[in-house]
What does this fold into?
Amino acid sequence: VRNAGGDRIVSLSKSSHVTLNRNSIIEKRLLLALDQKNLHVLYQPQLDVKTGKFTGVEALVRWDDEEIGVVSPDELIPIAEETGLINNIGSFMLEKACEQAVLWKKAGHNIKVSINSSVREFRDKNMAKSILATLERTGCPASLLQIEITEKFALEAEAETSIIKQMRTLENEGIVFALDDFGTGYGSFRYMQLLPISILKIDQTFIRSLKFEKTQQLVNGMVQLGKSMNLTVVAEGVETEEQKDFLTNIGCDILQGYFISKPSSSNGISSLLV
Ligand code: C2E
Ligand code: CA
Ligand code: CA
Ligand code: CA
It folds into this structure.
């Protein structure tokens, strides 16, 4: 295969072509969906083990496009990260989360709303500023916003100082950061040292294999590590009573997962709050 300039370029397999096509269709439809605000948000409750109450929710993006149907976050987010549209999704989710936190607050519930951000979004030097502006515009107190950062991406050296500075700014304003998918990336300990993290979210792959003694020991170690660093420890993907009991016994602070509650609409969450 030759391009217009006559250079030989690598030929793609049929399946790579199909993927490329689908990705570019998703990108086009996503631009439109963002423009028309056709994405929506589900909220998954987080149970405080000590009080037995829901103290927070995680906001999760959902997209059901009229032409291409449902696109799962696992497919959507990597494409959005590659194309830069992740920043637009991030702004959309932030705005929604803040508006919802304010609505719950007005109804008498102090529910912390967590949004997911990729470290990539913090490459934008105006990230902290625009988050604070959204809080102001929506009237959402900083104390009701939490930001989950995944350790999937290595911190790039050039961006590192700016990312840390922005996170510190936000932390000083009262926003809390969680380290998401803890234990799966290669950056965990480095992130814990460098970033202003207050919450550890143990990845669901560990919770899923809690039937194995080795995993139990590992998860127990993670919880104790978190505690020794004065961090709040969250377990995600809690699907069974056995998992809930084990995590409660080893002192995990907050539980999230289908056994506690599935992600649901804001109205669904409101009806759970008493
Ligand atoms: P995550 O942040 O680790 O979110 C938890 C995922 O596990 C969610 O999948 C949730 O629906 C699912 N989940 C919750 N409880 C259980 C359970 O008990 N069992 C099982 N098997 N799954 C459970 P979802 O919504 O499909 O999101 C997948 C990933 O996509 C998220 O993983 C997150 O990394 C990313 N994501 C979702 N929404 C956003 C967003 O608004 N922005 C960004 N940057 N990423 C997002
Ligand atoms: Ca998350
Ligand atoms: Ca996670
Ligand atoms: Ca995950």
Observations:
- The two ends are 64 Å apart (CA to CA).
- The CA atoms of residues 87 and 112 lie 22 Å apart.
- The chain is about 45% helix and 20% strand.
